[in-house]
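Agenda item 2: thiamine diphosphate complex prediction
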Amino acid sequence: MIMSTAATEPLGRMAAMLRIRRFEEQCIRLAQAGQFRGHYHIYIGQEATAVAACAALVAEDFVFTTWRNHGHMLARGAAPERMLAEILGKAGGYAGGKSGTLHLAVRDLGILSTSALVGGTLPLATGAALACKQRGSGITVCFFGDAALEEGALYEAMILASLWQVPILFVCENNTMPPGQRARGQSPSSRLPANRLADIPEALRVTSEEVDGADADALNECLARLAAQVRSSGGPRYVEVHSGRWPGNFLSWPDLPGGEWQIAWAFGQQSDHADLAAWLEQSDPLNRYLRKLVAAGTLDRAQAEAMDERARAEMAGAVRFALDSPYPPPDEAYQHVYAQGGQAR
Ligand SMILES: Cc1ncc(C[n+]2csc(CCOP(=O)(O)OP(=O)(O)O)c2C)c(N)n1
Ligand SMILES: [Mg+2]
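Presented output:
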């Protein structure tokens, strides 16, 4: 069942963003404490995109995502404790501990796949959109990073989506930074000869537009409108979301420069970490949205603190569940690995 976190009202969207922020911080803490190994990726700074996109979906729709998948899954209604247990490789996780962060999926929520391949999600999502067309209902949302535009799979998928006119919303999350502003060790920007990446889908007759990833209301309006167009026209749409890259977003080893997000930062106090302070001001959708809601009188500091307390408590509970969950027994290692005659065994 889809949970009510696919919020459409301002306070619901704020709460949904906060849940993602607090989940991701716990994830970093668990990784740094050695509770799980391998690389992982964090969605801090892009929360408003997942929340807006998932608010536009209904139960029968499909979601495809990448290694930066935690926010998409939470916004779609996945249970944080089962996600964290999966990330820790525990039996209580969505795939019994076999998928880890890089292959999280929840079929009942229509989250059919996380692809850890750059661009890998696009052909799968286009296939699901073709399935939506054939059954006559539902749409597919496909999230991917800006580097996917350097992959042939993206062009193949987008050409087919355009030729076949399938109901898919392509969401390119461009979190690139100009080289001069990028902290040492961060991912390079995509390198493409197009001046404007959003021109590329237009050339394939996929209508595209751009939106500011730090503006939660603009995202909400844009993604609701595009999802409605996909639903009514049955054809593809494309959006490029521009997000300022969060300073902790180091390749596969995220960190929390300046510590966990503080509500006080939205109420005039400044972080002592200079990069973080600048990012909070210009690019953080959460900080900016909280400030906006307070200025509009939609909520006050006490209400914001109570909302944050609920998010923190929920994620602390998720951590306890994940840590308490046992590892799967070794004799299950070969179960659910191979498919035979349509059945996993
Ligand atoms: C086909 C392929 N090539 C290389 C990689 C290694 N890789 C993992 S993430 C990444 C950068 C992706 O950048 P982007 O799509 O912009 O997403 P971001 O991580 O910035 O959100 C690369 C090159 C991969 N996973 N798959
Ligand atoms: Mg990127």
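Discussion summary: The two ends are 26 Å apart (CA to CA).
Owner for follow-up: CH.
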